[in-house]
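S.,

Sequence below, as promised.
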Amino acid sequence: MSFRFRLGPFTFGRTGTRLSLWRSKVGLSIPLSRKGRSFGKIGFGPFRWFFTGSPAAPPPARGGKAELENAQQMLGSYEGEAIKAIRSDRQFLEKLRRYGVPWRGVQERLKGELPDLLSDRDKIAYGLVPKAMDAVFGQQETAWKTERRPSKSGSGYTTWIVIIETGTADRTAPATS
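The prediction came back faster than expected:
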């Protein structure tokens, strides 16, 4: 038997919250948390009918194509702002040019520039690392590359981002609009 808690016309239990309206063994129960089925019992004189409804319908789809495009534009805007912030961080760029920075270091720097409202900031920042390096320095393997260096902890390797020193133009100067 599962635990249930009743507060007024609401029942809280294993299948979520329900609106339960009963009187003298007659009534109905409707799921409010989209789990379970509706059910009830109707009586008239000596006759009683028990009924069940279909499972709760899934939530209706929102927006569609237009909402997806809007979300993608917003994400692109956030990514652009994060890249712009890296491009203007002279101290970080100097460290990157001189010594290189672990991939995770660049990822965390980008993640710090993404808004907290994004639920998967870490994943977005990880995918943004090559885009940011391409935007700031140029194409991978031409202007920057990755190297596997021994980990500070002594076990395994860490991926580092290293700038390739060639006579290419400095793309880190802020863009003028």
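The two ends are 68 Å apart (CA to CA).

Coffee later?
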